[in-house]
Amino acid sequence: MTNNNEKTEYWRWLEYKKVMPNKDWKKAKIITAGVDVGSVGSKAVIMLDGEIYAWSVMRTGSNSSDSAKKALGWAMEDTGLTLEDFHYIVGTGYGRVNVPMANRAITEIACHAKGANYIWGPTVRTVLDVGGQDVKAIKIDENGKVVSFLMNDKCAAGTGRGMEVIADLLKIPIEDVGKESLRVNEEPEPVSSTCVVFAKTEAVGLLRKGWTKEKVIAAYVRAMAIRMSDLIEKVGCEKDFVITGGQSKNIGIVKRVENILGVKRLPVPNLKETGLDPVSAGAIGAALFAKALYEKSLKQ
Amino acid sequence: MKVITYYGYTDGSGEYYIVIDAEKCNSCGECISACPQEALQMEDMFIDLEDKPVAAVTEDHRKKIRYTCSPCKPEENSMPCIKSCKKNAISCIWKPL
After folding, report:
1. Distance from A134 to chain B by nearest Cα, in Å?
2. Degrees to nearest 5, angle at CA B57 with A158 and B23
3. Where residue A19 falls among pLDDT bands split at 50, 70, 90?
């Protein structure tokens, strides 16, 4: 039964976590955490003196507060850390007001900007964050401060949740959606609907017309990439350009956005060695702000 | 520190944004009382480790800004919110197709 269930849940993506070996929290002066509760994924990052120590990425459940606890709990697993050991915790994301162990909440825009600056360095100017439920284009300065931002959260189209719905419809595992969408000889017309509900209906129609699964997914992914590029062009795409959020892993989105904008994104660092995960950019930024706010509180 | 926020969206019918410059905004709240649709509020923005209250479009109205703001005729640049702001912190992008 379990096996059968797994096969039918094409939208289900792999949760992951890690604790950095060769790091000892008992030697750290300041222990902070950032918890980013998104609409689809919950991310927790633990930092020792501003360096990544442990992290986790999990699916957000029906309750933001439980999701926050679970994500941080999973990142803390096997470390021996307890909640009392943290000097400061910042909550962010869609469910940020419901992070019970957080000392304070900060908007995800500021956290994503800070996180992108930490992951890729001071040359980053434009951040495209494609989350589960909205798309954000953020312009930042060399310190990772927000200069301007634009969010499109009118509906779930062009986001992780939309991809999950289409993956399920086409029976393509969510991790393969990007790759499959690139297996077309030429780009099909993008689907015309911007709403995921209508886009799904349109995809069903295309399948009936005899389009291959690859062609249908390409039409969907292309439509989303066009919308994201429009958003970025509104704030202006300045180099260096990076993509964060769950869809930074969708190679079909990445390649198409790069083509439309005529700019390549900065490459993604090696996650296992560095912990610099574009999916966790918001949580990384939150953990960094936690350290800065703790230090500020000491001075006062 | 310049922080410009674009509230609104682009869809099949055009582009609709209310643009607020957090650096220019002095948190006076004049725009909030000037808005006949009650679409504006003060929201804390996290800038330089401080919370600064800045005018913002309410979450409800962000997704339907085209309908919220059209009675004020944004294309004629005569919106009460824009006129009420002494710091010129509010502007709009209004391009119906």
Report:
1. 12
2. 105
3. very high
